[in-house]
Amino acid sequence: MELCFVEPILSCYNNQYLGRMSESRHHHHHPPHHNNSNSSNNNHNNNHHHHHHHASGADGPLSAYIKTEPSSPGSLGDAASQPSPGELSDASSGSYTRHGSGSPTPAHLLQAPAALYSPPPAPPTPATPGLRKPARYEPGGGLGGGPAAAAAADEGQPSKCEYMLSTLPKRLCLVCGDVASGYHYGVASCEACKAFFKRTIQGNIEYSCPASNECEITKRRRKSCQACRFMKCLTVGMLKEGVRLDRVRGGRQKYKRRIDAENSPFLGPQLDQPAKKPLNKIISHLLVAEPEKMFAMPDPAVPEGEVKALTTLCDLADRELVVIIGWAKHVPGFSVLSLGDQMSLLQSAWMEVLLLGVVFRSLPCDDELVWADDYVMDEESSRVAGLLDLNSTILQLVRKYKSLALDREEFVTLKAIALANSDSMHIEDGGAVQRLQDGLHEALQEHGASQHADEPRRAGKLLMTLPLLRQTATRAVQFFYSVKLEGKVPMHKLFLEMLEAKI
Predict the structure, then answer these.
(1) 482 vs 498: CA distance, rounded Å
(2) 177, 160 Cβ separation under 8 angstroms
(3) 215: alpha, beta or left, given left = phi > 0 and alpha = psi -120 to 50?
(4) Is the pTM of this model over 0.70?
(5) For the chain, what is the largest distance between any 2 Cα atoms, rounded to a whole number of angstroms?
């Protein structure tokens, strides 16, 4: 059986396709507001709904998320060509719909991609009672693997993951994260940062940071520190040589003085510091593409226990999957792969990518797992939730990366490598996938040589952690699939679809 929910994100949607999607949704799926949030009413065995799903290729459900409008970078130059995945999901809303509480069916997403990908609102109060839940798999129901799904697949309806992969718009400014207007001075950037860089070079302007030369540069805060903004321009690769200095009187002479580090208190000592070395281009793109924080928002009205924990984690995982699909489109070289190969990589590696995020968030903690910023589990809460074995396994991975002092640049690169190092048997173009892997491996090696010169084998040690990551991800998939089979809690369609792709 084909995965009937992930494919819509990846496939092209023309008017005929939209009509078919809407009609299919009308006949085969529950209305958006029809869902039962009381999981205790659904705790009966669901073994008779056990379906084995495999990578479905370009005609399966995942491919519909990927197909529509190619948006991940086909080359290094395009690596910032989309909005950051943090903008693609309502990371703080408890649902990946932007407006309303209904289920984000592919038809809805196809008809209103602009609403889906609007910037996230402010984080909610964690104590907000109740979660707005999209339509999900209910034990004994037809969503996610029953007759409705089969009928939808027969009508050519793309899957949820595929649709998402195909509708991600617009490139980002590598300096501040705003929407880029094009490539300026060698880097995808917005008009504001383009003009700022040009003014700085042509005016021979020198800045000083009032703080520690580490100010965060974002769309909202890009004017707060000109020194750090200019340094960010240089770090992401803006070329001073690209600015036409002959339009300014004496510009050539000024430019000569400007690049003389000895005469510039701003450029000299700071560029000599190892921490300020320009980052590898691929890693720079991955840092910009890194999603925003997510919130689990457990329902405070539900008593602590296994059902609450599993419901919270399944809901969180479904929203994380939306973000992961969006993030994958930003990995340099991912979008040049065929639709089928994009789907195969995601179906194979999504849990590894998800868990690596949990692990990295947990590094500052002692024997606690940070599933989300508002959902941290220690040994006792893991025991109460029935998650002690799984969480203990993940904590082994946390300790491994903690011993290596994993930095953020290595984290984002390892995530991309985990995505590319799929064990899928359904890869169509092995050469293209190999080129994707090679570029990411080289980026990790280059970062190690530049930032960790005292550890010549560091990149190799980091790559050696990937088998343990895959083993841990396999255990997590098996755990959540057993939850599905036992009918303990309802599951969202995308999460269910991706689980079944791994079985």
Answers:
(1) 14
(2) no
(3) beta
(4) no
(5) 80
